[in-house]
From TrEMBL:
The chain crosses the membrane at residues 41-59, 127-145, 157-177, 189-208, 220-238, 244-262. PANTHER family: CDP-DIACYLGLYCEROL--GLYCEROL-3-PHOSPHATE 3-PHOSPHATIDYLTRANSFERASE-RELATED (PTHR14269), CDP-DIACYLGLYCEROL--SERINE O-PHOSPHATIDYLTRANSFERASE (PTHR14269:SF61). It is found in: Endomembrane system. The keyword Transcription regulation does not apply. It holds the Pfam family CDP-OH_P_transf. InterPro entries: CDP-alcohol_PTase-I, CDP-diaglyc--ser_O-PTrfase, CDP-OH_P_trans, CDP-OH_PTrfase_TM_dom, CDP_ALCOHOL_P_TRANSF_CS. This is CDP-diacylglycerol--serine O-phosphatidyltransferase. It catalyses: a CDP-1,2-diacyl-sn-glycerol + L-serine = a 1,2-diacyl-sn-glycero-3-phospho-L-serine + CMP + H(+). Its EC number is 2.7.8.8. The lineage of its organism: Bacteria, Pseudomonadati, Pseudomonadota, Gammaproteobacteria, Moraxellales.
Amino acid sequence: MTNQSSHTQKDPNDHDGITFEVVETEQHGNQKKISHGVYPIPNLITSASMLSAFFSIVASSEGRFDKACLAIFLSAILDGMDGRAARMLNAQSPFGEQLDSLADCVAFGLAPAILMYHFALHEFGRFGLTCAFVFSVCAAFRLARFNVQIGTVDKKYFIGLASPLAAILVTSSVMVAKDHAMSFTSQMLAGLCAIWTVICGLLMVSNVKYYSFKEFDRQKIPFVGLIIGVLIMGIALYDIPVGVLAIGVIYTLSGFWTTFMTKRKKI
């Protein structure tokens, strides 16, 4: 009887090759537990982010740049939602973390690069293709470095420009350029886009420190700070693409100041 039960007991690492299943090890305090299945809500939100990025890629290839840009912005919103949903529902898992990284690579690496290539960089042929590739591969490097540095760096700061913000910088610049295309020749526009795309890509893999805002929602600020925030939103609404790009550029430049001040304190 004992021998029979030992043969029928299912090995957690045994896969029959037919059933669609995820088996992973989850950490619960000081104990590790074998878990089967996935958490639906955060992983479905992540999948929706990837779907939006996929739509952006298709729209870019068809020349529908407005819809492609909006799809990337939607991916960024969904990317912020899946992590919060996982924390609120206590539904964090290794599978979800890996899926989120892969989705980010598509949404904030591949989709913006393809958008920029079809919008302007194709004017330069292989050189334009190289600039788009530099951005996409830097996004992949950025995400890989972030994954291996979890737990070893200060959570208050990002090392290198976060890939969603880099994607927003590229996307909003396309929207601004599209609205003001009459101010530039096609070659001039392509040149500016090429330089901007490479800069955004290299900032992702730089060691510039950026404030992560992960503790911002739990901290109090002076009342005047709230008024300034409302004024900034009002200015951004006057011309949304220009406003988003301006806020993104200001935040990008703030990283150099943060890095300088951090090094100065260590001296």
